[in-house]
Amino acid sequence: xxxxxxxxxxxxxxxxxxxxxxxxxxxxxxxxxxxxxxxxxxxxxxxxxxxxxxxxxxxxxxxxxxxxxxxxxxxxxxxxxxxxxxxxxxxxxxxxxxxxxxxxxxxxxxxxxxxxxxxxxxx
Length: 123
What we know:
By secondary structure, the protein is an alpha+beta fold.
């Protein structure tokens, strides 16, 4: 069993039941328990960037394909961001090109032209 005390609230203690082979060090158990937060952040980023949580399927194979494709897309984006940082090409300023004319409204995408009051809907 692992116990973790909060730094902000010392009276709060979180407990973890750990199942590991005999001889596993406490450092390894703490590392695995601590990696939970990084994994949760990864899933939150995949939901926001790749639509991990936007599936409408009725069977397991469709769900599995969607999740696999979304996680593959997220891994690709993470690898490309890491490669850009290693090259020193990390963006520090806003891009110079204009924003996309496509706006999302509910379940529809709308093409809006600046200065015009009409919009073309695309589903």
